[in-house]
Amino acid sequence: MSQHPIELLIQKADKAINQEDFDTLINIYADDAILVIKPNVNATGKAQIKEAFGKIADYFEHTLDVKQAEMKILETGDTALVLAKTIVSAKNYPTVERRATYVFKRDTNGGWLCAIDNSYGHDLLESDKQSA
Amino acid sequence: MSQHPIELLIQKADKAINQEDFDTLINIYADDAILVIKPNVNATGKAQIKEAFGKIADYFEHTLDVKQAEMKILETGDTALVLAKTIVSAKNYPTVERRATYVFKRDTNGGWLCAIDNSYGHDLLESDKQSA
User: What is the mean pLDDT of residues A29-54?
Assistant: First the structure.
C-alpha cells in the first residue's frame, strides 16, 4: 500500500529534526502554525517554531531522535487529523512515548502543511489540572 | 472568562445529541465532515452523520447522555484542534470516559464547523493492532 502524502511529510520532518536541518523542517509548517513546545507553552509561526526546535536540540545536547511508531490519518477535504504514537529518545534521557495529535491543511497548491503540532496530545489536559 | 465559540458549539452539539435533535446537531458539521462511529467505521457528510446518530440513539435505547468533562482548544487561523475528556453514559451501559479529538474549521462567514469528530482519540491505533 502506498504511503499517504502526510505520512511522508512527517517522516521528512522527523529526519529534519534528527539532523537539525531546520530550514527543511520549517517548510513543512503553515505560516501561522502552532507548535506545542511543552504543555501551556506554544510557538506560533515559522520564526518562533524554528527558534523552538533550535532550543530543543540544545536541551537534548544534539542527540534527539524522534520517530513515529504508529499513525492513523483522518482526512476530509482540505483538513486532516493525524493520531500518532511518537517515540522521543535522546542520550541521557529516558525514552518517552507520546500520543501525538497533528492537524494538517492543504495549501493553495494542493499540498499539505502542518497547522497544529501537538506531540503531547491529551497530556495538555492533565497539565491544566496540575497547575490549577 | 468568556467561553470560546467552539466550546459553546460543542455544548450545543451535546445537548442536541441528548435530546435527539438531529436537525440542530447536523448544522454544527461541515458538509464533508467525518464522524468516527466506532474504530475503523466512519460516516462522511451530513446525511450519513445524521443517520449514524439516529442509530446510536436506538442502540442506547434513547437514554444516551454525552458531556465534556474537560477541554483544551488549540486554534490558528481557520483551523482548531479540540482535545476533550468526553463522558458517555446511558441506562444499562457502563459510563465511559473517552479522550476525544475534534477538528473545527472556519466557514466563509467566520463561524466554526466541525470537520472531524473522533471521540475515540488514540483508541483508533489500538483497534488497528487488535484487528491486525
Answer: 97
Q: B104 vs A34, A96, B37, B80, CA distance in Å? A: 15, 29, 18, 5
Cell numbers of A123, please? 497530556
pLDDT at B132 over 60: no
- Give the residue from B36, B83, B87, B127 with the most A CB atoms within 10 Å of its CB, the best one to mutate: B83
pLDDT of residue B1: 63
For chain B, the domain total comes to: 1
DSSP string spanning B1-51?
-PPPHHHHHHHHHHHHHHHT-HHHHHTTEEEEEEEEEETTEEEESHHHHHH
| Intra-chain end-to-end CA distance of chain A, in Å | 46
Sign of CA dihedral A44, A48, A49, A52: negative
DSSP A2: P
What CATH number is associated with residue B52? 3.10.450.50
Provide, as residue numbers in chain B, all residues whose Cβ is less than 8 Å from the Cβ of A124: 72, 83
Where is average pLDDT lowest: A58-62, A128-132, B98-102?
A128-132
B7-38 residue pLDDT tens: 999 999 999 999 999 999 999 999 999 999 99
CA distance B72 to chain A (A): 7
The domain in which residue B56 lies consists of 5-131
